[in-house]
Model the fold of this input.
Amino acid sequence: MSRHSARILIALASSITLTILPQVVLAVQNPHALHLVSVKNQVTKKAQAPEAAPLIAPPGSVVHEAHRGDSIPSVARQYLKKTSYLTSTELGDAIRQANSGRQGMFLHPGEQIIIPGILDAPIVEKTVAVPKDFEVRAIYLTGVMAGSDHGLRIVRHWKEVGGNAVVFDIKDSDGIVNIAFDHPLATGQKHYIHDLPKFARFLHSQNMHAIARIAIFRDEHLVTTHPELAVKSHRTGQPWRENGKLVWTDPSNPKVQDYDIALAKFVAQSGVDEVQFDYVRFPAEGDQKDAGFTFQTENPKWQRSQVIADFLTRAYAEIHPTGALFSLDVFGIMAWQRSVDLSHTGQDIVAMAKHCDVLSPMIYPSHFFGMDGIARPGDAPEHFIGESMDRFLKITKDSGVVIRPWLQAFAWRTHTYSPKYIEVQIEVAKNKGGIGFLFWNANNDYSKPYTAMPEMRAAKGKFFRGDDLPLKDAVAPTVPAVTTPTPTVQPVSSPVKIYRH
Done:
């Protein structure tokens, strides 16, 4: 074929192709084209479908729209302070229930959920006033425990077995304040109890007398941040250390006193029923001659006991008008009125009784080292509880103060710690004139008192009268979203302590 003929055939083929190809392509691709149209129509229909109606928050709740990374626990922590719930776990459980029992932890971006229990205004709780001879049956909780789910279970179980009061830490000897408190010296804060009026309302809902404990002059954080407020070493000019270890604020420094009184007054106005001072004394051990105090230059004729009495006069004047009771923890050994103990601690029991409603001597049998010729004092609760109570009642006679002892709820230095050990202490204290009792366990393990209490309650007056708070109209801040089981002994995150003095 000539080159010219080939060109003609190629041109003719191209013409035929251009004429037929669109139809062929359309025929071949038609099924696929129909599929594309169908998908397009579905997308269009989906885009045009009405959007889901936004959630409408029921009364007392709000709607939260989730952001990337949100989870139910994180949202619960975010809203906790705005709600009536005490812990983020309780709020998290309530969020699940309010959202049709929603499962899973993480939220999808844009997902809407209902947050229940929103407060219209911050809770304002009032003190439930009781006479100072109200029979308190209390356990102690650290600040960490009080603000936890396990702590709430302990409170509920203590009520079930016959308790009617809880002592909880506002500030322990580490100096960390467990509540929000606006003061220039209160720089060490961990809000384990995120809302004090809310926590007080919870205790009241459980018919519990709320006792707020404040460690006064033993304050490690305040010394660390403000060494000028510490007891000073004459030799070094630096903060003096008790036995080379423990630091103390100067009990005679006006700034220290003002700070503690301001904290106590704030707490008393937040709905608690009693403010309790611990460590309201001078350091008792260490090189006493090397310890320098403000009063030694400003009031050189004063004794340590005068400093303490003057401080308590001021504190009582601020706390008493709030309606809250004012109680003081004192060394059990002070009942023996030894001059060396008085000169070191400044705890003149006769003088202190004039400036408080309740004295709570710490008469743990195990702490009477070698006293009265008894080799194992921890195994002689009858003797040391009885002797201590006799002596305290005698030296405070006609003062009007109530003696409500701290009793031992731990096994340190005793081979006989048991529910019976608990019963013996309470019975002896009551028979010797004590009104009520406080149980101390630094780890908040009250398994032995839990066992003993129902038996004592059934004894009808042998161990305690059975006073209870008047029922309040107020309800608990929340109804727990889930029924909580009876507490079991669990390790706590705070450092393990055996005892205190």
Observations:
- The chain is about 35% helix and 10% strand.
- The domain at 137-458 is CATH 3.20.20.80 (TIM Barrel).
